[in-house]
Structure prediction request, 203 residues.
Amino acid sequence: MKIIAIGRNYINHAKELNNPVPEEPIFFLMPDSALLRNNQPFFYPDFSTDIHFEVEIVIKINRLGKNVAPKFAYRYYNEIGIGIDFTARDLQEECKEKGLPWEKAKSFDGAAPISEFKPLEKLGDINNINFRLELNGKVVQKANTSQMIFPVDELIAHVSKYMTMKIGDYLFTGTPSGVGAVKIGDRLTAYIENEKLLDFFIK
Ligand code: ZN
Prediction:
């Protein structure tokens, strides 16, 4: 199982980090040890002093796929969830400056809390789903999947050109604007439409 994560997939987030709007999807990988399930707490790592939350819609792949055409990509998933792509922003800035890969800033243990998954047929159109993140009860990120630069089916088509997508893989689809720092004691809650699917503490 692998986790594929998309960077800069919402214009307003690319702008808030002063990044150019990409011409094709940007992706990176996380190992299975990054996952946190069942609302387990996130333990603030000692190698960073600037951990940021990024809320993202997560797609669970349910079919083996290589070179998937965009128009057939919908056949490769039928459940979605919500997750956080925790980022050590201080390490990421360092990596970017030096032109190095982002893994140590993005793919560390516990960097990817995920919710349970919900059948897509109950939620309707993948390209029209509302989601949000609350930090200590205050909304900090709020978006609709229609605002993605590259919709889910194009992400699957793009990634599967380079690597086979396997049953059980997760696709983090990018974060909207509003990312920010967390500190020990904070509580994060994330919603798809009005259903709370993530609720955990920073320890
Ligand atoms: Zn992200």
